[in-house]
Each structure stands twice: as structure tokens, then as C-alpha cells.
């Protein structure tokens, strides 16, 4: 999964890509079309502000550069800039990234997707802003902290005045990963300053200090009011650059715990696992048949965690099982798995089961009729009837050959479709096809009383306690809870499906076919992000030989990888959601692989 903190990470391998791209012929658009789209556009990618500069030559050749002001990166060359009617795309070889989308709003917006490891929505707005010759007293970057009980949120405010005299601002909630929320009704009079933030139905009102370096006021939201004061900053907040610990000789399983204890100590002392955060992590390692489970901070060896999107690999294995058993075929249209008349048959190619499990369905990340409310349990009330209403309106025709686009909706639909075919709920299908044959007794959706007692409390990135998430129609995308020990059972089966034992009492179809189904689920089927390919939900990197997937919910994060050639697997389970600098579980997973292979290891000391 791409991380915004690595948006402009480079390596020596980029040089060859850049030279190769430069050798390709320049793209031409009609001169009028090129001139119309030329200009400066601004957007935000996570916490980073991104500026796109499009130029048009007289003959219609388009050029582009990309800036990341927060990282001090300006003028990064873009290549293969193509404009065909309203379809626009370009590549950024230096950072292994690409953007693809369309020109919208009469040229005022560029709507599309940035892909640098995993696709992320990145829209640009034409920057027609003309700054005032003399900034107003409230112009600038302001940083404050909103405190509500134990929760503390860093709030950043960017204010600028236009040449015509209008004032503009945007708000960032750094610890919630919400950036670029536009202000409305911005009002400045003498020292008084006020603005609304429609996206969160909030309002701030207050006054500028005599020295012009502070704003003192009140934030009002949901009928509640809290003090929120700002101090002026010399530059915007930006995430820390990734740091790496020096490489060690490859660490074997016997010594890995001691090395990890030393590497993770700074996070325990003052960082992401400091005792006041209530954070906890449990780590499982498997090498050459030997298993280890480590836990830190509030985590325990038998703690259950939500594994989020790692659930998708289980849904992929269920599909592989049903294919091996002759119940379904990969190329069947998903429409045939829905109740009659939900979506009429079209004359066009339709989305298949394989399209869903490989994230090539063209479906968006989420359905537009999913009401996420306050975000505390966004999937709980999304039922099959809601899913069918969305599909009835959207249809299931496949437009062209959709490229990789990560979709919770798509894999959630796959889980619901397979449950429909099996005529059992998804949770029962999971137990029948995967966790039963593999004897994974702690990998469930519905918890027993004993498991509820071991479910470690989840926390938002701000360390505020949050409730577990519940799923219904989209369970196949992220509903599973598990332990590190049970996940090692799962990963051991991935490494050696031929060694899966079948008990005398388990000679039913799922037990007989699970080894072949696992092998099938590993076969790469399509391109994914960057240099990765995707199998049955697992991402595969040919250079490292790693299969991996990560996951996150409102209060948990998880990372799993296995490498058959190295006979190595690891899982990281954490009771804290990813924050503005990414997922600590991801970093721990990467760190473990780097220590095992003797490479410089991404540092855990800076994990806040």
C-alpha cells in the first residue's frame, strides 16, 4: 500500500525508467484542446499538497511537472502526458507514480486516481487564485489543538486573501488524516475572524491577538462548543520523512526477538506504543516450520484484533474453493449470483467473479448509498437490500478493460455473491470453506463470550477509544477478527498447502480441495499497483517473492506477508488505526522482512 510520506521516495532504479520514458515519442493533442487544459492545478494527497503544472506547445504537445511544496520538491518531470477528448493521463517515473482521469467542470477540475503502490483518489482544481499584493493580518499558516476529554487533535488552518479582497481558508485535521477541508462564509473585520467548514458542519469564531501571532476562539460542531486557539507557523506541517535503521546481517528466528526488542524500544518509551496511548501489538513469525508470537505494550499473545482488509484474502480463498469444487467458475458474471431482476442482463461484457477478486471490476471503493454517519461503525447498517439498490442503479456492465482500482465494494459484493450461491451467510461460508478445514478456531466474525473477553480494545489514530466495526452485506471486504497464532496457521497453509493435514472426520469437499484452492489463489491474474500483480486478492511482488495484504478498521490495523521461496511469513496485529503518517502495522511488517533479509530496516523510532 502506498504511503503519502513516501510520495517522492526515489531509488537508483528510477533512473532507467526515466531514460526509457524520455525516449518515447511526445503525445500530441489538438492545439486548442491542449491550450484549454494548460495551467496550474492544485490537489491534496493525504496530508500532502500537490501542484500540477500543465504546459501546451503550439503544436499540441503537452508537458507537465509536479510539485510537492510540503516536501520541498518542485519541478518533478512528468512523461507520457496524454489528452484524448476529456481523458487525461501522465506518468512520474522518478517516483514510480502515474495519474489517470478526466477533465471536468469545463476545464476547472481534473478528476482521477494517483497510483504509486495503491490507487488513491487525487483530484485537482485549477488554481486561478491571484494573491493580494498585501496579505491581510490573518493570512498564513495556523496550528492549534482541539481537546475533548482525552482526545487531542492537531488542527491546521491555511488562510489567504485574494487580489479582489476576498478571504479564503482550508482546514486540516492532521491526526484524523483529513486534509484540505474548504472553508465557507469566511469573515474578517478589524481583529475578528470567523469561518464555517461545511464538510463537517463546524464553525470557528474568534479574534486575532494584538501582535498578530495568535487566534483565540471557539470551535462549534454538533451543538457543542470547545475552545480552539491557533498560533502562527512559519511553514505548513508535513509528515516526517521515512528513516531507516542500519542493515544487520540476516536475523534468524532465534535472534529476531532480541533484535526487535531493541528496534521497538523507542516506540515503547515515547512513541506509538507508549503506555498512555493504550496501544498494543502482537506479532507472529514463521520460518522453516518454526513459529514465534511476540506481544508488546497492551497486546497479549492470545489477543483478538480486527484484521480489516486481510479478510479479502479469505474471500479470495473461498472463491478458489468453490471453483475447485465445481460450484462456480471464475468467469461467471456476478449478476447471476444475485436475486432475479436486481440487474437486468446487458448486451455488454459484465463484471465477473475474477474481476471482483482482482480489483479490476471498475467499481468504486465504496457505494454512493453507504451512509457512513459519524464513522464509528460505517458498514453495520449496509444490508443486502442496500447493495442491490446500488447495483440496480449502477448496473454490472463492464466498460472496456477496467484497470486496477481498489474496491471494498467489489470484494464485499463477491462475498455476498458467493454466500448467495452457497445459500448460507458469509460467516458460515467462511467457517465451512476456510477456517474449518484449517482448524482456525479463533478466526471469526461473530465472537464467543471467551473471544469477546480477549478482543483488545481498538483506538483511533489519535488514541481515542473506539467501538469495533460490524459488517453485513460487505462482510467479505473486512469483517474478520483473529489472533496472531491463528493467522500463523493461515500463513503456514499458504507456505505449504501440500502439508495441510485432513482429519479422519473432515473428508468433506472443503477439506479435500483446500490445498489445491490455496495453490490456485496464489497465481497472479492481473496487474496491480506499481510493479505488483494481484492473485486472488493477495498482492505479489516478483522481485521480492512476497505475497502481502494489509488491513485497517476504525480502531485496528494489520499486515500479513508470506514468501514461499524463503519459507517465511509474518503477521502484525495492532489495536490502533493508521494515522497521518500511515500504518504502523505496515511499517512493522516491512521492518521484519528487512531484518530477516539483512536490508536497512524502516525505523520504528519515529512512529508517533
What does this protein look like?
- The chain is built from 13 helices and 34 strands.
- The protein is an alpha+beta fold.
- It has three domains: 4-126, Lipocalin (Beta Barrel); 140-233, Beta Barrel (Lipocalin); 253-276 and 288-500 and 507-597, DD-peptidase/beta-lactamase superfamily (Beta-lactamase, 3-Layer(aba) Sandwich).
- The strands form six sheets. Strands 1, 2, 3, 4, 5, 6, 7, 8, 9 and 10 form a ten-stranded antiparallel β-sheet that branches. Strands 11, 12, 13, 14, 15, 16, 17, 18, 19 and 20 form a ten-stranded antiparallel β-sheet that branches.
- Strand 1 and strand 2 form a beta hairpin.
- It starts with 12 loop residues before the first helix and ends in a 6-residue tail after the last strand.
- 43% of the residues are buried.
- Mean pLDDT is 87; it is low at 1-27.
How are the SSEs ordered, and which strands pair?
Blueprint: H1 13-22, H2 31-37, E1 39-45, E2 48-56, E3 62-68, E4 73-77, E5 79-84, E6 87-92, E7 97-104, E8 109-115, E9 119-121, E10 124-126, E11 140-148, E12 151-161, E13 167-173, E14 178-182, E15 184-189, E16 192-197, E17 202-208, E18 214-221, E19 224-227, E20 230-233, E21 244-245, H3 253-270, E22 280-287, E23 290-297, E24 305-306, H4 311-324, H5 353-357, H6 384-394, H7 408-422, H8 426-435, H9 449-454, E25 458-459, E26 465-466, H10 475-478, E27 481-482, H11 484-495, H12 509-521, E28 526-527, E29 533-534, E30 539-541, E31 546-552, E32 557-563, E33 568-574, H13 584-597, E34 601-602
Antiparallel strand pairs: 1-2, 1-10, 2-3, 3-4, 5-6, 6-7, 7-8, 8-9, 8-10, 11-12, 11-20, 12-13, 13-14, 15-16, 16-17, 17-18, 18-19, 18-20, 21-34, 22-23, 22-33, 24-27, 25-26, 28-29, 29-30, 30-31, 31-32, 32-33
Helix pairs in contact: 4-7, 4-8, 4-12
Amino acid at each position: 500500500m502506498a504511503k503519502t510520506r513516501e510520495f517522492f521516495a526515489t531509488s537508483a532504479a528510477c533512473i532507467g525508467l526515466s531514460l526509457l520514458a524520455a525516449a518515447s515519442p511526445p503525445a500530441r493533442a489538438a492545439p486548442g484542446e491542449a491550450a484549454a487544459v494548460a495551467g496550474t492545478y492544485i490537489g491534496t494527497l493525504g496530508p500532502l499538497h500537490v501542484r500540477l503544472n500543465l504546459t501546451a506547445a503550439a503544436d499540441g504537445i503537452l508537458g507537465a511537472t509536479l510539485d510537492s511544496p510540503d516536501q520541498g520538491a518542485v519541478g518533478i518531470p512528468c512523461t507520457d502526458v496524454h489528452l484524448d477528448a476529456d481523458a487525461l493521463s501522465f506518468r512520474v517515473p522518478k517516483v514510480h507514480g502515474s495519474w489517470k482521469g478526466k477533465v471536468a467542470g469545463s476545464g476547472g477540475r481534473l478528476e482521477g486516481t494517483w497510483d504509486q503502490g495503491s490507487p488513491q483518489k487525487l483530484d485537482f482544481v485549477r488554481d486561478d487564485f491571484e494573491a493580494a499584493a498585501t496579505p491581510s493580518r490573518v493570512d498564513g499558516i495556523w496550528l492549534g489543538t482541539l481537546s475533548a476529554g482525552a482526545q487531542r487533535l492537531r488542527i491546521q488552518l491555511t488562510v489567504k486573501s485574494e487580489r479582489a479582497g476576498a478571504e479564503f481558508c482550508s482546514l486540516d485535521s492532521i491526526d484524523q488524516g483529513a486534509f484540505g477541508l474548504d472553508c465557507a462564509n469566511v469573515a474578517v473585520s478589524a481583529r475578528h475572524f470567523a469561518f464555517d467548514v461545511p464538510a463537517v458542519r463546524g464553525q470557528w469564531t474568534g479574534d486575532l491577538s494584538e501582535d498578530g501571532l495568535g487566534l483565540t476562539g471557539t470551535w462549534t460542531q454538533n451543538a457543542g462548543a470547545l475552545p480552539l486557539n491557533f498560533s502562527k507557523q512559519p511553514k505548513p506541517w508535513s509528515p516526517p520523512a521515512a528513516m531507516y535503521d542500519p542493515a544487520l546481517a540476516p536475523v534468524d528466528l532465534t535472534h529476531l526477538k532480541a533484535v526487535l526488542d531493541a528496534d521497538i524500544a523507542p516506540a515503547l518509551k515515547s512513541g506509538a506504543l507508549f503506555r498512555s496511548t493504550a496501544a498494543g501489538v502482537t506479532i507472529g513469525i514463521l520460518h522453516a516450520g518454526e513459529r514465534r508470537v511476540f506481544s508488546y505494550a497492551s497486546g497479549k499473545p492470545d489477543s483478538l484484533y480486527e484484521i480489516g482488509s486481510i479478510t479479502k484474502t479469505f474471500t479470495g480463498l473461498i472463491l478458489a474453493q468453490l471453483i475447485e469444487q465445481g460450484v462456480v467458475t471464475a468467469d461467471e458474471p456476478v449478476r447471476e449470483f444475485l436475486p432475479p431482476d436486481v440487474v437486468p442482463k446487458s448486451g455488454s461484457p459484465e463484471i465477473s467473479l475474477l474481476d471482483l477478486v482482482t480489483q479490476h471490476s471498475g467499481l468504486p471503493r465504496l457505494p454512493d448509498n453507504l451512509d457512513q454517519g459519524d464513522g464509528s461503525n460505517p458498514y453495520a447498517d449496509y444490508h443486502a437490500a442496500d447493495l442491490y439498490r446500488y447495483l440496480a442503479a449502477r448496473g454490472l456492465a463492464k466498460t472496456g478493460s477496467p484497470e486496477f482500482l481498489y474496491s471494498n465494494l467489489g470484494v464485499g459484493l463477491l462475498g455476498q455473491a458467493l454466500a448467495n450461491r452457497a445459500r448460507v451467510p458469509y460467516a458460515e461460508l467462511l467457517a465451512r470453506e476456510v477456517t474449518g478445514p484449517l482448524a482456525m478456531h479463533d478466526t471469526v466474525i461473530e465472537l464467543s463470550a471467551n473471544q469477546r473477553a480477549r478482543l483488545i480494545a481498538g483506538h483511533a489514530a489519535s488514541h481515542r477509544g473506539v467501538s469495533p466495526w460490524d459488517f453485513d452485506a460487505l462482510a467479505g471486504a473486512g469483517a474478520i477478527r483473529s489472533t496472531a497464532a491463528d493467522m500463523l496457521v493461515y500463513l503456514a497453509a499458504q507456505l505449504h498447502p501440500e502439508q495441510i493435514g485432513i482429519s479422519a472426520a473432515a473428508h468433506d469437499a472443503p477439506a479435500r480441495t483446500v490445498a489445491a484452492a490455496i495453490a490456485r489463489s496464489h497465481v497472479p491474474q492481473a496487474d496491480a499497483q506499481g510493479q505488483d500483480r494481484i492473485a486472488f486478492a493477495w498482492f505479489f511482488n516478483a522481485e521480492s517473492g512476497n505475497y502481502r495484504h494489509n488491513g485497517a478498521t476504525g480502531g485496528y490495523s494489520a499486515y500479513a506477508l508470506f514468501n514461499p521461496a524463503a519459507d517465511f511469513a509474518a503477521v502484525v496485529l495492532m489495536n490502533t488505526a493508521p494515522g497521518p503518517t500511515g500504518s504502523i502495522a505496515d511499517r512493522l511488517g516491512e521492518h521484519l522482512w528487512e531484518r530477516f533479509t539483512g536490508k536497512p530496516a524502516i525505523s520504528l523510532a519515529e512512529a508517533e
